[in-house]
Amino acid sequence: MGAAREVVAPADARAEHADARIGAQRILVVTLDTLAERMAGPAIRAWEISTALAAEQHRVRLVTFGACERPGVGFDTAHITVGDFRAEVDGADVVIIQGFVMQTFAWLQQCPQVLVLDLYDPFHLESLEVERYKPVEERNASLANALRELSAQTARGDLFMCASEKQRDLWLGHLGVAGRINPDTYDADPSLRSLLTVVPFGTAATPPQRQAPAIKGVVPGIGTDDKVVLWGGGVYNWFDPVTVLRAVDRVRERVPEVRLYFLGMKHPNPDVPEMAMATRTRRLADELGLTGTHVFFNEDWVPYERRADYLLDADIGVSAHFEHIETAFSFRTRILDYLWADLPIVCSAGDTFGDLVAAEGLGATVPTEGVDALADALELLLLDDDAHAAARANVARVAERYTWPVVLEPLLAFCRAPRRARDADRLRGPEFGTLPWYTRARLDALAVLHYLREGGPRAVVGKIRWRMAKRRGR
């Protein structure tokens, strides 16, 4: 892991956290996900954000409350604990947060740092599917927790990021309810893009490079001349691999060399359990007699740096989902890997990428749960070389819009001159003093221990003076 950067004592916080700062910033990127060779979407996004900001000469530190096994290149990485977090924030000018963080640390509502909230994953809608097969009491509790987190986020962010224009409509509604669409923010920017901007998931700016074969001629049962349809990610409850299995069962009659490969059945974050849909998928593949002949499962998760080998061994990328609210506002990150590798795409209609595939001729979109339509689309792209080549050329053209340097530009521009939200003076989050006395005492004790360890008694005195000055200024 990267070496910890010295934490700047907060005695100068008021001067350092003025309304606007130009030049190199101290930027803290916060995730809950595992940082390792095998990373899921949230960790990948945090990693690429850190990489891009470090390339602009900012001092970037990527921290996780999960496991951290991968050193950064040009930036620090570290595992942190709850007790470490306040000092990490105090040492930053800008803090970029994703996931369930804000409600855990109520003091973030009052901190002087510029806060960027990443809303690319509508987790309150996702929870409806993640918890779908649990008792209703647990489902209600999970949703209530997600809504509390969103309330804490929308109450405080200085900049919000989402993944698509459709998502932006969703989050504008949340911000409106939270009172963040007001005369201050509207008069400053009637479009509100300076408050809520679109930063999609991205792909590498350089084309994928093969290190070694990964599927064809490597996986038992898949030959070098077989035609591989790639399911490029995990199997979660909101996806519909069942329709894909049934379509492949039909396609094999006309295309006996078709092979469906599931890229990752085991999530790299150990806190994410296998979902009911994964079990159902395996069972159906067995019942149809497809397992090991036409359907194959990678039981692990592909290392991030090796995913190109798997993508370059595929002929088509596939993604299927059900028609529900999660689908409407999702942003299927696996399809970006298909774009990166110039793979023709067959996917369900109804989400952002379904619209893109149809509009740009990137392959085919099919109705949700449409087995026959999906089978026909796969057959066309597997058997018609001209259709395959045309889709591939269109994918290569569109992929240029989704490279990380392009999609991250709104965030990069903001961090070159970060500033508090225009309505910062209106924000009134929960005060530290409203916490129970024993919670305040525990947090103060942890802070004292940290500052003694990092900077000695002088750092503790500086912290006390800063807090007293802050209280006098209220």
Automatic annotation (TrEMBL):
It comes from the Bacteria. The keyword Methyltransferase does not apply. Keywords: Transferase. Gene3D superfamilies: Glycogen Phosphorylase B (3.40.50.2000). One of its GO terms (molecular function) is glycosyltransferase activity. SUPFAM superfamilies: UDP-Glycosyltransferase/glycogen phosphorylase (SSF53756). This is Glycosyltransferase family 4 protein. It comes from Georgenia yuyongxinii.
